[in-house]
Amino acid sequence: MENTSTVKNRGWLVTFAGTGALLALGVLYAWSIFKANIPTEWGWTEAQQSLPYAVACVVFSVMTFVGARLLHRFGPRAIVSAGGVMAGLGVIISSFSSSPLIFTLAFGVLLGSGIGFVYGSAGPAALKWFPTSKTGLISGIVVAGFGMGSAWVAPLARALMASLGLQTTMLYLGIGMLVVVVGFAQFIKFPPKDFVLEEEDTVETSAKNSLIDFTVRETTQTWQFYVIWVAFAFGSGAGLMVIGNLASIVKDQIGLPALTAIAVSALAIGNGGGRVLYGMLSDKIGRTNVLIIAFLVQALLISALFFMGANSVLANPPVLLIFVALIGANYGANLAVFPALMKVFYGPKNLATNYGIAYTAWGLGGFMVSQLASTIKDATGSFDNAYLLAAAMLILAAGLTISLKSPQAKKAAADKLRAQPIAAD
Fold first, then answer.
1. CA distance 91 to 106
2. Whole-angstrom Cα distance, residue 14 to residue 10?
3. Distance between CA atoms of residues 52 and 107, nearest Å
4. Under DSSP, is residue 242 helix (H, G, I), strand (E, B) or coil?
5. Whole-Å CA distances, 125 to 15, 121, 130, 330, 381
6. Cα 289 to the chain's mean position, in Å?
């Protein structure tokens, strides 16, 4: 058996390799930059411009579950490698077409599938190397990579598109993504079979060590799962609506076209930082408490967009960048805290699969809210009503989260009852 320090170092290597792989996939969160550069001669409507992004969100979430199901059969290295190939090819194929259908199939379906494979494997692989007390931190670090991906993609893509155009830029980015993700995948693996996890000796950890594992069927038979699903859909959908349209909001509503790429990067930094900070905070004050805070703050921020225009306080560049970074941070809380909440509620053994099912809420929420926002924009000329709808959804998500109680005690009682011998007559 390897010594403890070597094994711990390998755990951190797996963690940062997963972070790096997800960092390379930032093209999805940078969609608003690509959307803003779709040539007018292509004749796409607002809804068509949002469709590849919306479909990618749905497929991404579904394939996260599929990847999780395949994870223990093929191992994280193989699944992440396959995801890198699919994601890269999706962007490469998109670069050769101006058709909304081809874009949607390549960017939406193929890229979305690849991201789902990577996202559904990198986090669970890293979590197996660390004690339960570090669940929020490790989960936050890994998914921060994906959240911060557009921080480098947005300015790079904007610079490349200025000289090379949309399609050549996507070709280069697709090739780079494929190579980088497959490279990082070679360092992502599960712990060896003889690995013994050293938990921190605290009262909280002792309680968490006694977590009962739920099967997928048992998880989906609890009312808490459906509350989590709806809250996740509303919380993530509201954030994805802003992310997918940020360049348009900054350019057309706020009147600062030169700041579009910087604003996307600022939101990405907030997104990534929020995942780490909210993940750490959830280890201290509880998962549901953090989610309630994030939902309510996000509702205030997005509803404020209803009142903002070219002559508003957001027309001040530093204020705008701080504002969008805060939106990113509160959105990022969803991606760090919900997997940790699923682990605390349903146990660590089947986390990848259980969270994979819950993660479909992210995709469907993103699809529905993004498409609804685009439809509202086509009909009214602005996103104003979409902002109010998103804020209402966030308030409802906070209310639902308040009602959550762990199913662990009920499961323990049921298991104990089943284990009792039946008395003979």
1. 7
2. 6
3. 6
4. helix
5. 8, 6, 10, 25, 45
6. 19
> Per-block average pLDDT, block size 10, for the chain (425 residues)?
62 93 90 88 87 90 88 92 97 94 95 94 86 78 85 89 94 96 95 70 51 91 96 95 88 88 90 89 92 97 90 88 95 91 88 87 88 87 92 97 90 70 56
Residue whose C-alpha is closest to residue 97's, from 170, 153, 154: 170
In residues, how long is the chain? 425
> What is the C-alpha to C-alpha distance for residues 300 and 315, in angstroms, rounded to an integer?
18
Token code pair at residue 285: 């004050």
Within 8 A by CB and 6+ apart from 362, the residues are 57, 60, 61, 232, 233, 236, 240, 334, 335
Residue 366 is predicted with a pLDDT of 85
Per-residue pLDDT at 100:
92
Where would I find the H helices in 24-134?
31-36, 46-74, 76-94, 100-103, 112-127
User: Which pLDDT score is estimated for 146?
Assistant: 85
Three-state SS string across 246-305, please? HHHHHHHHCCCHHHHHHHHHHHHHHHHHHHHHHHHHHHHHCHHHHHHHHHHHHHHHHHHH
Specify the 3-state DSSP secondary structure of 372. helix
**272 neighbors 151 (Cβ within 8 angstroms):** yes
CA distance 207 to 290: 20
Q: Which of 32, 181, 192 is nearest to 128 (CA)?
A: 192
**Which CATH number does 12-190+214-405 carry?**
1.20.1250.20
